[in-house]
Amino acid sequence: xxxxxxxxxxxxxxxxxxxxxxxxxxxxxxxxxxxxxxxxxxxxxxxxxxxxxxxxxxxxxxxxxxxxxxxxxxxxxxxxxxxxxxxxxxxxxxxxxxxxxxxxxxxxxxxxxxxxxxxxxxxxxxxxxxxxxxxxxxxxxxxxxxxxxxxxxxxxxxxxxxxxxxxxxxxxxxxxxxxxxxxxxxxxxxxxxxxxxxxxxxxxxxxxxxxxxxxxxxxxxxxxxxxxxxxxxxxxxxxxxxxxxxxxxxxxxxxxxxxxxxxxxxxxxxxxxxxxxxxxxxxxxxxxxxxxxxxxxxxxxxxxxxxxxxxxxxxxxxxxxxxxxxxxxxxxxxxxxxxxxxxxxxxxxxxxxxxxxxxxxxxxxx
Amino acid sequence: xxxxxxxxxxxxxxxxxxxxxxxxxxxxxxxxxxxxxxxxxxxxxxxxxxxxxxxxxxxxxxxxxxxxxxxxxxxxxxxxxxxxxxxxxxxxxxxxxxxxxxxxxxxxxxxxxxxxxxxxxxxxxxxxxxxxxxxxxxxxxxxxxxxxxxxxxxxxxxxxxxxxxxxxxxxxxxxxxxxxxxxxxxxxxxxxxxxx
Lengths: 366, 196
What we know:
The complex is a heterodimer of chains A (366) and B (196).
Chain A (H helix, E strand, L loop, with lengths): L1 H27 L5 E6 L3 E6 L4 H7 L18 E6 L14 H5 L2 E3 L9 E4 L8 E14 L2 E7 L13 E6 L9 E6 L9 E7 L5 H9 L5 E8 L11 E7 L3 H13 L5 E8 L8 H10 L2 E8 L11 E2 L2 H8 L6 E7 L1 H13 L7 E5 L1
Parallel strand pairs in A: 1-5, 12-13, 12-16, 13-14, 14-15, 16-17
Antiparallel strand pairs in A: 1-2, 3-4, 3-5, 6-7, 6-11, 7-10, 8-9, 8-11
Helix pairs in contact in A: 7-8
Chain B lengths: L5 H9 L12 H6 L4 H30 L8 H23 L1 H7 L3 H4 L3 H12 L4 H29 L11 H16 L9
GO molecular function (chain A): iron-sulfur cluster binding; oxidoreductase activity
Protein name (chain A): Oxidoreductase FAD/NAD(P)-binding domain protein
Pfam families (chain A): FAD_binding_6, Fer2, NAD_binding_1
């Protein structure tokens, strides 16, 4: 009996003293007090010190893109810390290029706030929110491309620039044991704030595309956050627009076209769309509608693998070849490209050869 | 127990009684963090640091609290708690007051709380009835020995990075095989000193 008492008391006292010491330390040593964060030399926030910068910004409802949830394993949550970040930590180094190190780019999930900070983040991140949305419809566009309509909760809405994208969370499902975020461009009009459309192609083995194509059903809820991206409609000029896309790259272009229709923008626009066979073309009725409704718009699809049996009367070959034929005078043209890196690289080359200024070529590679 | 010079124990702990190669203790961080030499060196330093101080702390606790109360059999739970609390306290202090040290090894501290080499040293100290100085020699030696092992492993892994390996052996598989080969090589030291 006595031994039981002694052991219990000893262990309890020992643990108790340590717990007391740790609590004391947490209140004093680990208490950094309130710190000031200045963002873009404009907005000021007072936050609790000792936290990571990412966590503090999320508390202030500023969503820095992050896929791993602050574990330092995705490298997405980069921000510029101009003052007060301390030296770069070994856990950040694998994610930063030499140029980024020079520009004071850091991983916000690894930097703790121990002094007042001055940081720089892209302005549009102030607009980024997390949403839980409901799948309203899933439509087959082609055998491998689906269109999703995601409806926001009552009272919630999104405002985005035509051309921007959101991140969709693929949850854990059978055959996938990690949550991942993947970026998809918004295909719906910016004036519709209560839903967004996404156009998602099936990539064999892709975590998010497999989820969307094989598991997602109408009525399911999904988590998204956004909007992100600086690929968007530019209203500085009113010169001719060259729109180029392949496959699901049509999504941001559609949003831009809807925007032009809604705002009644009187600009000449040509949309060059590359596909393999007639089966890969989609939303042809909508594009016909645009041709009627817009000021001066033409949809020019080109097929790289049209066979005789397809009876295809339109253009043939890849988009870069088509552009080479179609663009005569380069002056005063603006180009918007969305598609695979290979397509964009070759098209940018053609456009530059034609004399279109590099700063008038906007693109979104995926 | 033969009276051994603490210095002898120190060298024995590095070469003949290496924590990794003789006892296979502290394997999880040894396998997990041995990808790059600088990182493994940082972790090794942190292990040495924590080992030295927790062993001293546990020596005092064991001989001044547990032995007088005849509670030697509680040493497992007491050692584990004292190591965990010490590591956490040290992390807070280092992070606040020694920023440079924190950037060098502070981020590894949480990894070490659960490193069995640290508990192992405290337990060996008790089993082998070391004096205070012998315990310190043993702890510092074990830490340096562990560092030597992980840095050597990181060096080997950096060299085989571009080598084509059978799929099943990638990562931990080949690391364990290399560890075994290194352990065989370390047997070559066994004639120098012997402690048990």
